Amino acid sequence: MDKNTRDLEPEIERDFSQKMSYGSYLGLGDLLAAQHPVSKPEHHDEMLFIIQHQTSELWLKLVLHELRAVRARLMADDLRAAMKGIARIKHIQRSLTEQWSVLATLTPSEYAEFRGDLGASSGFQSYQYRAVEFLLGNKNAGMIEVFAADPQAQALLEELLGQTSIYDEFIRALHRMGYTLAPELLERDITQAHVFDESLMQVFRHVYENPAENWDIYEACEELVDLEDNFQLWRFRHLLTVQRTIGMKRGTGGSSGAGFLKRALDLTFFPELYAVRTEIGQR
């Protein structure tokens, strides 16, 4: 090493005229050309705003990819492989949540200078985010109407609306393992959001009060709780970032803004796994 430089080793590839390169494999030409600020004159901070949301959508695409695999593994009674998938999703969720700190560097004054240029576009219209909610069990057919102008997005959500969630498949796997479950849990309308079921909570109470005999299920329950905890942290961090940036202004997509986001914190994917904590040890 001389003059603080490093010589290229002779084996390092240099000619990619006939070979696949890093950039061509990742499609970097298209990816890095996909940022199109609309403010006139272009505001410096709009690039941050665009990349923040594009990056989130890429992570959501991966979450959807992993959730579908988790669902398939549960259907095949491969519980350990399903939990491995959830472990990966949890790491992705942490990255998504930490990203809010970058957007939070956008001050209210800076955002106000280009917010009006965004028109009616809003994160509320993220179909991938809705798809994640559907796969986790928060079904809401009314959300599909938002995507009437995007047939591909609408078709995806309609497909997921009519499919079981990962919680549905976890419950069905419990049934196949010999746990006694109410028939209505196994035959419920899967186009509706899952709601609390007392009998299911009692099954989980048995699991939690006898962990040694139910270790795989006990461990899986805690993985699911981690998954929901992380999702709620993302929701909460989103709410705080919105409040920090626009206060209580109405959202660009027409929602009430922070108030609408706050109500999302009351939604739950796995209610019995939280309710059971009150019951453990009670006689």
Descriptive overview:
Helices cover 59% and strands 0% of the residues. With 283 residues, it is mostly helical. Helix 3 packs antiparallel against helix 4 and helix 4 (79-103) packs parallel to helix 11 (215-246). The mean pLDDT is 94.
Question: Can you describe this structure in just a few lines?
Answer:
The protein has 283 residues and is mainly α.
Summarize the SSE layout with pairings.
Layout: H1 22-26, H2 28-32, H3 46-75, H4 79-103, H5 108-112, H6 127-136, H7 151-161, H8 166-176, H9 183-186, H10 198-209, H11 215-246, H12 258-264, H13 271-279
Helix pairs in contact: 3-4, 3-6, 3-8, 4-11, 6-7, 10-13, 11-12
What are its keywords?
283 residues; mainly alpha; 13 helices
Give the mean pLDDT: 94
> Rough shape?
globular
N-end to C-end Cα span: 73 Å
Residues in helix, % = 55-70%
> Which stretches are low in confidence, meaning pLDDT under 50 for 5 or more residues running?
none
Helix count from the secondary structure assignment? 13
Over the alpha carbons, how many angstroms does the gyration radius reach? 23 Å
Structural class: mainly alpha
Number of strands: 0
Largest sheet: none
H/E element sequence: HHHHHHHHHHHHH
Strand content: under 5%
